[in-house]
Amino acid sequence: MKKLIAITLALFTLGTGVAHSLDAPKGPVVLTVKGKLDHPNVGETAQFDLAMLELLAGRKGSMKTPWNEGTVSYSGPFLRAVLDAAGAKGTSLKIVALNDYSASVPFSDAANLDTILATRADGQLMSVRDKGPLFLIYPFDLDKSLFNEKYFSRSVWQIGTIEVLN
Is the pTM of this model over 0.70? Predict the structure, then answer.
């Protein structure tokens, strides 16, 4: 009975995106989070493979963006779920692309908006060629007031690193 309760509690915790410790990635690392972290898993960083990210709470949203023609369905973990899993504490984020492009994003965007780190577009994994492996997507489908240059400039694609700043 104790084993059943422990398994149920573990599944509930995974489903809510809450983590108290972070396992090391088993597959290729697609995201490294650094800065003030309570749950690092590789040195002082939190590293995630795709499978780890896909276990976190997230959403799918179909929306128009300035980067695509028509409507695209993006899915992936909530940015806040990734930051929670890493135990990140800070006031802003530096989102860094694989080509070193970066954007400053208030920590509150992760906490208060349903921003996702999209891993899929129209159900398909996103390759580097197609803005992957991760693309910060704001909930343009849920809040039309976000559809402006302020949030477009924060929507970094080909994300490899997130730096948590105080």
Answer: yes
